[in-house]
Amino acid sequence: MSENSVEALLEEARLTAAIPPPAERQRLREAAGLSRAQVASAVGVGRSTVANWETGVSDPQPPARLSYLRLLKGLVEIYPAAPASAPATAPAPAPGPTSEPTPTSAPAAVADPEPTVPVPVFTSHDTLRGPDGLAVEGEPGPCVRCGVTTTFRSTDGHPLHAGAFCVPAAPSNATAPTPAVTPATTVPAPATASPTPAPVPTRPQRRARSAARAQAETTSLIGRAVQEEAERSGGDEEAALKALVKRAIPDVMHLFNETRATARYDYTAYPALPDILKKPSKKDPDQIWEARPRFHHPGYSLKAPGDIRVTALDVNAAYLSALKCWLPIGKLDHSTGADGVEPKRAGVHLITPAPWTHPHLPNPIGDRDEPGALWVTNATLRLLQRLSGPQHGLTEAPVIHESWTSGATENFLDALRKTLGAAREEAIAEDDFLTLEYVKAMYSKFISTMGESIHNREMVRPDWMHIIHSQAYANLWGKAYKAHQAGLDVVAMTGTDELHVTGDWRQVFPEGRGVAQMKIKYGEGKASGEYTIGTVTR
Questions:
Q1: DSSP per-residue string spanning 22-58
Q2: Strands annotated E in 111-208
Q3: What is the pLDDT of residue 133?
């Protein structure tokens, strides 16, 4: 072994002995304005490995350890930790002729570092819930996962923290700060004095979690799953992504159940379905018309000569945004006429839409050639009713023949939407491809399998699936109308997320990858990105 090799080993040993704790590693990186992807590229590991080093899941290992330790050492020199302020010590009073001896004040105990809260993990245990959907409580007992006392129960009757979110037990070697000893008083204590135990509540008290903390806890499940698969695949990103996509359905159902843990009401997972919502045979189409668009402006053509510039735009996470919609909670009830149409009811409706007389705008009913009555969801019906109102006046109100509806709420999936949205936003900021694709797989598969699917047996709600699809199309129509009102021509609108417009679209929509933003859509066809078209002469 050469002298240089020995020096390198000694340097690595010295740096390892002085390595900052995981939380400090993250602080140093953020203080320098570095992303995990940048650090990972510099030291030769994956982004998830850096995340593991910063959360304490694993420790730096060779061959990347020395480079990482050198980076930390340099960052410590540039961004040293703020010194802890020492508590002021009051001077002891000078003893007088008749004063009592003053006991020596105990040295102030050094505060232990705040214990690291473990990241929750996806667990096979499920929280026991009552008919109201709330977690069931019982006699206090040690949690089967962490051993800390809890009043909540699992489905097999054992103590389990609600949602399997375990709180770390207080460290046994923690030393409480010793208060300064005060001079003894002359009042004698009662001879029978004894410690009074704290009153024990006669009924377990429910501990409410703030919405922000609940979202942070459920979001951490996503990060933990990505870290697990990245570690298991040994840095093979393709293998890790394949594993994450495979587990997306059970994982998103677990997230869904946890976001419902503190809900005020339960929902019907397996309602009795009317015939119109039952899965048809392979040869027959669904009876519910979701209003999927396939619009092309009749006045423009790629084949016509011209230099009119068009931009193809992409709506980010269209299905994720569509989770914000009115969903029926319970079993659907039948009604005739407009009796089942109320602001706080949702379901499916048999309607006859009015003719659409605006060829320069997409038909809100979608690409449908056959006239007459059809079954639509409440998302489509609400759009038609808005467009027939005094604010728009674009069409006549549809005729409603009958409905299957239930009491509804617009916020049923909102907690899940916010959790997945927060994870997606963080993944974009960190340039985390694995998490971004994992989140996309979760919300897309959640929607596609909530009907009758062999891949998801936890719920059968085809009405929800149709409503969410229709809501995505209605949202896209709203963006097309916004562009039209701003003076842009809508050249094409297809699918759930594709909108082609003329003019300066950045004056209408913010550009970016966020759910409220738009970006240029690129593909293999000619109508992709930015392209030119001509007008059709008749």
A1: HHHHHHHHHHTT--HHHHHHHHTS-HHHHHHHHHTSS
A2: 137-142, 149-152
A3: 52
